[in-house]
Amino acid sequence: MYYQGKRRGEEGFAAVIDFLLANARLVLGIGGAAVLGIATLAVKRLIERAGRTPDDEKPDQKTIDSWEELSLVSSSPKLLRKGIEGVVMKQIAAAAKAQKAELSKPSSTTAEKPQVEVKRIQLCVSLHERLKQYYESHVALSLEEVSRAQQQALDICTEIQGFLHTKHPDMPLEEMHLGGSLLDDLQVVAADHACLLVPLQIEDMLWKLIPGEETILGKPQFWMVRRVNLEYFPRGRSFWDRFMVGGYLSSKTVVEVLNKSVMETMNWPILSNMLECVVRPVMGSQELKLEIKNGNSQLFISILPTIHLNDTVLTAQLEFTGNFDNIWYHSLYTAETTKLAELDEEDHVRRNTIGQRLLWLIDSSRPLLR
């Protein structure tokens, strides 16, 4: 019974509140309704004024707003009703605008993502096109220019090899051949340099290669070639014993002998007339280098004595080894190009791309990066 009475009391109290809210004018009277409306407008003005920044509101505008608030007190119920309806309409319009803005935000973010992706794709495409354009205009060589330079180098290689066999028939040399970037299609900007490799034929039972880490210098690129088994094969059994200094094969002595035999002995004017180009040695250089001029083109050929033993290639390059007589330079060029060719055959692709030639251009133009 107590529970049922309580429920009836709550329902009666709620009914009274609903009746007062629904019939405010009848219950409170016209004056009470006016006071309620004025209080509502005053609260709204205070809220709007609190949301403004100090700079947005001028002193004159503050005065006008104050006078308008005072005039509301003496306004008629009809004007008061219109003001209340205006406030409600403004709030409804503001809520509708806010809802539209919230609905439009996800669509704008989703629309921005494809635009960003398109810009990234355009950036990548433009970078690739710029590199390709630079390669074709500044780096790439024509097939005619490369083939002409290769043919000139091969002709000179044949003449020097024949001259050495005639001058030193007992010198054990393997077949001379061209090497370097010109032969491997890595030449860039201009086909202006090549290498003529002169392989020395040494006996593996009489000579031993000493890695750079085990030498007095302790540098991996500087190797030595030591004479071994002297107790069984005394000095003189090998042709290269005459180039030995302190028990090691001297790279400097080999270069000096080839300089006297080739650079200072060959008849370069006759060779120039026969090849229809100007061929002459480069004077004042530590390396054995030839200069070939044919019209506006210029080609340099470096003559490199090499030792190829146990998959290791050593070259006599005094510009790298300096004043050390018994030091040979460990070249990794042949091993790296061979490995690259093997990878190309396995994958059926060609890694000799634009990027690789651009890197070769940077390396050739910046000696400090070598």
UniProtKB/TrEMBL annotation:
Stretch forming the signal peptide: none
Keywords: Membrane, Transmembrane, Transmembrane helix
Biological process annotations from GO: mitochondrion organization; positive regulation of mitochondrial fission
GO-annotated cellular components: mitochondrial outer membrane
Membrane topology, record value: Single-pass membrane protein
Subcellular location: Membrane
Ranges for domain Mitochondrial dynamics protein MID51-like C-terminal: 145-336
A Pfam entry, by short name: MID51-like_C
Chain segments annotated as transmembrane: 20-43
InterPro entries xref list: MAB21L/cGLR, MID49/MID51, MID51-like_C
PANTHER family (UniProt xref): MITOCHONDRIAL DYNAMICS PROTEIN MID49 (PTHR16451:SF13), MITOCHONDRIAL DYNAMICS PROTEINS 49/51 FAMILY MEMBER (PTHR16451)
The protein's name in its UniProt record: Mitochondrial dynamics protein MID51-like C-terminal domain-containing protein
Annotated source species: Anguilla anguilla
